[in-house]
Amino acid sequence: MPITALFSCCALFGVLLLIPLAPASVTLLLMKKKRAALAALCVPVGMIALSVLVTVLVFAAAQRHSRIMSGDPQRLFEVTFGFSTPPGTSVVEAHHESIMDYGTTVLRFRTTQEVINLIASHNFARIDKETFLRAYQSNDHNLPDDVRSWFLPAGEADQFYLATEFDTSFGTSEAALCYCEMTQTAYFHWVGVD
User: Fold this and answer.
1) Domain spans, the chain
2) Which of 85, 124, 168, 170 could form a disulfide with 161 if both were Cys (CB 3.0 to 4.6 A apart)?
């Protein structure tokens, strides 16, 4: 179950408990039973507060993780592809963002054809440029402007790959990879949504 749905269900259940318990608490307050009135409200108010607090904490942790991963391109490459950057491979630009049930990674790196073959051997299918552009254009609007300025995948590329299930920890996960053999520049864009 996606994490936001879990927090939403907890908060909703708290609100549903609060509806019958709020009038009962008011009645107990009028009867001068302050402790009993507060005890009746503790569980639903606690569930609502806990849902909000955990949501904020998870969001803050995800933002921190995104900054750390974007600031360490070599580590982001390793986490994304499952192996460290081989000799002759350098990550030029990197961007990572994760927010609750959504994640995206964008990389521009210089590498050899052998590394591209290794990456493409995991769930990628080679496709033509038109199919690549259609698949990529469905996700490029989600990128921040500063990322779009360096991430121009189709202009010079001559090899195009698409993976419809790149990361199985997400319900929907799509990755696009393109490579220009002449400049040895690769562009990678992954989006995962639960």
Assistant:
1) 3-67, 75-193
2) 124
Residue 41, token pair as written in the block: 């409200």
**DSSP track, 122-182:** TT-EEE-HHHHHHHHHTTGGGS-HHHHTT---TTT--EEEEESBS-TTSSEEEEEEEEETT
pLDDT by 10s per residue, the chain, length 194: 466 677 777 788 888 888 888 888 888 878 888 888 888 888 888 888 888 888 788 777 777 766 776 677 888 888 888 888 888 888 888 888 887 678 888 889 999 999 999 999 888 889 888 888 776 665 556 677 777 777 766 667 888 998 888 777 777 788 888 898 888 999 888 888 87
Contact (CB, 8 A) for 113 and 107: no
pTM (whole model) above 0.90: no
Say how far apart CA 189 and CA 174 lie, in whole Å.
8
